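By way of example, what follows is a protein record of this kind.
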Amino acid sequence: MNRFQGRAVATMAAIFAFVGVTQANAKIAKMTKEPEAVPGEYVVKIKPQYNIQNYSINTIANSLGAYVKNTISDLNLVVIKRPVFETRQSVMQQLAQNPSVQYVEPNYIYHINKTPNDPMLGQLWGMSNTGAADSEGHVGTAGVDIGALQAWDIETGSDKVLVAVVDTGIDYNSPDLQANVWTNEAELNGKAGVDDDNNGIIDDIHGANFVDAAHPTGDPMDDHGHGSHCSGTIGANGNDGKGLVGVNWKTRILAAKFLDANGSGTLDGAVQAINYATKMGARVLSNSWGGGGYSQALFDAIQKSNEANAVFVAAAGNESNDNDSNPTYPASYDVPNVLAVAAIDNKGQLASFSSYGKKKVHVGAPGVNIVSITKDGYQSWSGTSMATPHVSGIAALVASHFPDMKNLDIKARIIATAKPDRYLKKKVLSGGIANAYTALANIIPAPDMNDPVHWSSKDISISTAHPYVDKTKLEQTVNVPGAKEISIYFAKFSTEQIYDTVEIFDGTGKLIQKLTGNNDDSFSDPIPGDTAKIVFTSDDSATDYGFDITKVAYR
């Protein structure tokens, strides 16, 4: 250590000694609730002028009054452990008072975003939907897919595009994946037990494992199945006469594992996995996981991937949540390269579990009963986890065909060329389903003619009282003689969520739709035939505006 470095250590130690005395000048993560985190663990960002590489672990530990579990030198982060009996807020307030600390936050826990069902081998309707039944026997709507068959006439992928699957790892021995798994030639041809490429990970031939974030390894073998399932959708080897095919027949998939065999991982593992993928040159990062609160450390890692020209594709979440009003991370981070994905079923409807957001979720993609690879063979799973790799695959396909296209242009292309879908019109920014063909061809798809906004219409007037009263029961019939389908337009709709409802029946008495809550400026689901009965019912607990019906669309 030279004299300058010696003075730096002494200065840093002296500054850290002011903990609890100096006026707070570091940010504390704002939290309205306490998301799940590792008890007693915190991620501390040290200000740039105090580079942690210049200090010993003991110096940092003594200065922070904590055990140092891990350091992430690329981002100047320290992961510490404090006694679990201390409250989260008190620890964060104390550490934030140190003038060398830029911010401090809990070591959040993240989980995969999948909803598993019984494993069955079904059709890859997400690639090409003919209207046949999916793996659970649900009949689909032809054309509700990502347009893969048309896209493959233009581009089938390239081994020059690196896709990082930030997940539970990859079964790199799978016959469906083996040909497309990234190989680190420096480590493959180097010495065992040596960090031949000096990237901080020993023997990372196919990726890295950050489950034990303080002791990463070079073996990202999937011990859960989730990462392999996502990888199969992105890039199962194509045109080989066996198994499945991914969106990309040819690509390179890097495993950045931080989720364990139970599908869970920590903030420090996630940050390192993303940082590793960025460092190794990934053009696309696929992220089918979520949880925790807002993390500046995770934001910074994603921002670094943006600066490296990567697209960060993220699952919107499986909580049926409006991400515009209640952010879900990492999908809701306001970093330009984040592309958030909702899940649809094979009819184009937003999946019942999928989160959404007119501003914060960008596109929909197939995510219900999706067949792909797992450690236990082919299985059919559902979740925004399954929707995300469809979009990651499209991003990689576009990057293959346009190698000089910038990451933000790829994101913008996917959003602009999404295929309009009436079920997504007010649920995601694009109002549609990501489509590989239109993205490659740079085509703005035609409007969804199943959307009643494009039908003929006539004015009608049906309203409740404003506000309506307790125990209201209102029934009205709407008829458009000769129509094959009709749809009711609600200019205003606001009722007590769950308890006060509007039920819409067709002419045979079959229930078509049940509405509650806020549905301003919206059409009902299409009603077969020329007649509909509208039944409004309220309980005796609370009232709201009610509704105004101003027209009926028909065709």
Q: What stands out?
A: The longest helix spans residues 384-401.
